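User: structure tokens for NAD(P)-dependent oxidoreductase, please.
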Amino acid sequence: MVVGSGRLVVTGATGFIGSRLVNCALSRGYEVLALARDPDRVSAIKGSGLRVEKWSIGDPLPAVDQSDAILHLAAYIPADLSDVRQAAKCFEINTNGALQIVMDAASQGVKRFVYFGSAQVYAPSPHRATETSPAFPVHRASYYLASKLSAEICLIAFGRANAMPVTVLRLASVYGPGMHGTGMVPTFVRTLGSGRSLIIRDGGQYSVDLVFVDDVASLALEAVGKGADGVFNAGSGHACTSLEAAQIVANVVGASQDLITVEGGSDDAAARGFSSLDVAKAARQLDYKPLSFREGIETWKAMTGPMEFQG
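Assistant: Done. Predicted tokens:
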């Protein structure tokens, strides 16, 4: 593990991943400038090395001269991911906004730019997706995911033209403490943890690579500390079906497997989810050792305590 002693800038610092990243960076000895639309929401994060400023994508970047890296998480996610009318705003904020930030950062002498992308840009495949697998996000959330993918391309191109190292992390489905109450994993935890019945759709075959949030934060900091450029997958390395995930959660919270009911089924490959990620590159270059889903759920429970974990 790389122990930091420099200065980092984190955008989207009040988000689920951003807040965990700030905590992880502070614990490693970094000074952190947290940029957030609502600075009051960062007040729960404690650390003598933390400074918070109000900022939104589109605002000029504040003074960050000679920081070791900007870690860019802030993004626009439409409420309706299928609404074509949201496409322009996705590109305005997620692509053009990211490019403006990297230009501002370079002008201030920032040493590295770390961009948090999405592994859902990969075309569906029965095989693990490597960093060179085809990216063609037309099956769901196309306008949002296309804006994230185009940001990757623009950032890497800018970095190469201006001698500014750019690291892209393509994130699998991230879970863990601090995440919002919607979504598959928190729903499973909350429902089974309270002893209620859980109905799983699509025959329980929806499949996704689930990665623990602190593994993502640690990978980002390793990329900064070791100076790794290019694209890296940030997943667990294994796909987990919705049924398998529910069974693991039930086992960890001590719930009966009989509470889980499976309904329906689908022949639509897109409805069955996303490819697992090949994380060999991150393991080789950044000593990445992600937790399995079971290990992550057990760690989450141990960190928060049974009542808060299931609440």
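User: Anything notable?

Assistant: The mean pLDDT is 92.
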